[in-house]
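Good morning C.,

I know you're traveling, so I'll keep this short. The sequence:
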Amino acid sequence: MRIAATKPLFAWDCLEDSPTLKTIRQFLKSVPDAKLLASLRQWRGKGRDDYPVSVLWGTMLLTILLRHQSVESCLGELRRNAALRLLIGIRSETQVPRKWNMSRFMKVLGTKPHLTLLHEVFDTMVRQLAEVVSDLGVHTAGDASGLSGRLPRSKNPLKNPSLPQPTGGRKEYTDEEGNVTKVVEWFGYKFHLLVDTSHEVALAYQITSANTGDNKVLPDILAEAQQNLPVQKPKRKNDPERGRIRTLAYDKAADDEKVHELLHEAKIAPVIENRSMWKENFERMLPGHDGNSNIVYDEAGTVYCYDKVSDPPVRHKMAYIGHEPSRGTLKYRCGACHGGWKCPSHKRCNAGRKYGKTVRVKREIDLRRFPPIPRATKQFERRYKGRTAVERVNARIKIFWGADDGNITGAERFHGYLGVVMVVHIGLAAANFRR
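The tokens, ready to paste straight into the viewer:
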């Protein structure tokens, strides 16, 4: 028996440890860097041009693409490999830049307006990819991770305070009872990502100081992703246009009322783990229900009914039927009638109704508590598992491409270096798509 196995659209497990010259050539041609190079040439002006900015830029791309541990390692390969030198316009070994030339160039990349243009290169490549991959960005996930960094060696005051500077970061992991089980500390930055869960492609990114909350960055990174993804045209004439993103998965760090309101306005279903904040009264009555009712909900927004005929009363989860966008409600029915089992309170609750007791919960009661995809559903569990895509992308950026080595000093160099890493990431996604 033969089982046909097909590779995913972006076969990340097939990345070449040592890309061929053909792959490198195709990648370099696919990078839309004209505006960035023009800005760098204008910055240089009429000064010495021993090493053109195109050569320095190409060297930075090759350092990441060829997975060198340092820029010096890439420069050594360029001195040995004549064919590789020609790909970035170096004709002889004497024209290979020195390590201090690359260090200065990295610092320039991390200053405005070059840093903004570098980010635009990434955004442009995401837009190009989204035009040909129709489902890119439909289901997304976000996360933040710590990256190691170093302070500049100079004792002079910071020349560019607008950039996030390396600081101490700390993250605590707790169990269900709220006890701290693990503590992670680092010195550097916080790297925020929004990725497509199906194709594991980054749609937007941002670098902040290590002590910045995820909920504060999410609105900006979501806006960037929405700009990079084309608006879907309505199927009917009277239907309004809407963004491509349908769901967004995130951990409890984004469980914030403002975040849920933002996603509600953008018509994006949040798949966010809720934070445990109730210290007492772990069950509460739904608005509109009094003490005679048997309908309650917990902190996660799960709706239950009580079998009051039994002694003591027994709690049962109600069956989720679906989200009603036109009404802005979540529809629930009797779990016994829906599941086909007998409940002692059947006559008391259902009163001969075929489908049993029906409860509609208005989402406006608490958008954070009652998302369009309730937490106690298989759909929520399936979408929330998509967060593992962010972890894999983070691992590639931090380990495969060396963004977390901690060898780069100064905020400008770090931001410039990580910007190049993200360009290589999206460029290889496009290269894998073309295969």
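Safe travels,
E.
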